[in-house]
Amino acid sequence: MAEDQSNSLLSIHKSSDSGLQIHLHPLVLLTISDYITRHILRRQQSPIVGALLGQQNGREISLEYAFECNVIPGGDETMILDAAWFGDRLQQYKDVHKVPALELVGWFTTTPAGGPESQHVPIHQQILRDFNETAVLLAFHPSGVSRGATVGGKLPLTIYESVYESGKVEAQTGGGGAMEIEDQEAPQASQLDHRFRELPYSVETGEAEMISVDFVARSGGIATAAEGATKNGKAQASQAPVGEADLRKTGKQQEVKVVDDSSILSPEDEELITSLTARANAIKMLHTRIQLLKSYLTNLPPSYLTTSSPPDESTSTAPSNHTEINHPILRSIQALISRLPLLLPADQAAFEQERLAEKSDVSLVDLLGNISKSVKDTREMGRKFGIIEQARQTARRGATTNFNDEYFSAASSAGGEKGEGAGIGLF
By C-alpha distance, which of 85, 136, 78 is closest to 107? Predict the structure, then answer.
């Protein structure tokens, strides 16, 4: 409540008093994250403002798409939306997303953890006046990301709705017992102050969004692997010698080249690294949530851990360091524990037999694949051996033919010389 009292733009009423239900889709979070990242890298000074598109069915609002908006200076050193540009862009999105038909349901911006500030009011009032009188505000808190508050906790954002409250009633009741004014007439509405009230929200994911989230996760893993390979390559290149003396170090240069080639990951390795990284992050998140539940249950009062009867609050007046009891959370934990046996098969023996059968089938297919590969390698080796043996036989035949030719030519020449000598003797 301290934050609510310090920020005069926040309502003193709790969010549970409102019947609005907000369904937030991951695509909106990805769009906001991409917009903030580009805004920071480009060192832009303009405020971060964007529109939220979705569907509104009664008291349920879904935030499905988001896009960044152009702002222009307004009166009193404030920023407002460029009405002409915003109207054209909004119509373009409506023309694209016709089934189901989407409409402007709110806008987003960055705010401190304490809530919206005075510079956010003109844009919000402009959207309420010109586009949607029930638009919500999604406030993203960059300070929560820098502190690492998202690990094991809630997202660094808050969703607000617009309410009108009387400041005089709050002054009379001290702020704690202010009466909520609803369904007032038009003359009385001008006497009310515009304020923001926090809304609860839930995250919903569709099939198309799961594909997008999976693609982003894979891209992040591949980028990390490529960045590591690039750093290794640069480090090895900086250590490589330069100049004429390099010609004397051919062996070292070849070694460096081999290391450079080994640092490049194949697409299969990148996909494996991405998959293992995603699974490791999921296991870490699961471990963090389990530790959070364990810490909550451990810090409960001893009566909730030993007996089924709640403690007597009249007898325990001293301050306690135990966790505040929340029965909905305890019921959710009990329901989660009761669903754990459903993960185990009903017939353990049949399940084990089926698992062994599938394992045997996989091993048999692997064995057949190895046998086929061995047969192929054997046939290839036989073919190469036949080619070499045929070349050897051809070489032997050629050598034998040359030897016989030389032998007969030598013998014939020797016989001719003997014949000539015999003829001379006769004469």
Answer: 136
Give the separation between CA 333 and CA 270, rounded to whole angstroms. Answer: 38
Q: How far apart are CA 70 and CA 137, in angstroms?
A: 17
What's the CA gap between 89 and 83, in Å, rounded?
10
Query: Which residues does 80 contact at the CB level (< 8 Å), separation at least 6?
Result: 71, 72, 73, 74, 122, 123, 126
DSSP 427: -
Which amino acid does the sequence have at 315? T
Q: Provide the Cα torsion 242, 244, 250, 256; round to 10°.
A: 0
CB atoms within 10 A of CB 108: 25
**Distance (Å, rounded) from C-alpha 301 to C-alpha 311?**
8
Two tokens at 50? 């964007």
Cα 240 to Cα 235: distance, rounded to the nearest angstrom: 9
Which of helix, strand or coil describes residue 89?
helix
Q: Where are the alpha helices (DSSP H) in 80-206?
A: 83-96, 121-130, 142-146, 167-173, 186-189
Quick one: DSSP state of residue 13?
A: S
Distance, in Å, from the CA atom of 199 to the CA atom of 59, rounded to the nearest integer, reads: 12
> If you write DSSP's letter for every residue of 264-281 in order, what string do you get?
SPPHHHHHHHHHHHHHHH
Quote the distance between the C-alpha of residue 134 and its chain's center: 32
Can you give the pTM of this predicted structure?
0.52
Cis peptide before 100 (omega within 30 of 0): yes
List the end-to-end C-alpha distance of the chain, in Å, as a whole number.
148
Structure tokens, 100: 């189901």
Structure token pair of residue 312: 């007597």
Rounded distance between C-alpha atoms, residue 56 and residue 105, angstroms: 7
H-type helices in 150-249, by residue range?
167-173, 186-189, 207-239
Q: Tell me the pLDDT of the chain (427 aa) as tens digits.
A: 444 457 788 887 765 566 788 999 988 988 999 899 899 888 888 899 999 999 988 888 999 999 999 888 887 778 899 899 999 999 999 888 888 888 999 999 999 888 888 889 999 999 999 998 889 999 999 887 766 555 456 788 999 998 887 765 444 444 444 444 444 444 444 467 888 888 888 888 877 777 777 777 666 555 554 555 555 555 444 444 444 444 444 454 444 444 455 567 788 888 888 888 888 998 999 999 899 988 888 888 877 766 555 555 544 444 567 778 888 888 888 888 888 877 777 788 888 888 899 999 999 999 999 999 999 999 999 999 999 999 888 888 877 777 767 766 776 776 665 555 544 444 4
Q: Which residue has the tokens 């304020």?
A: 195
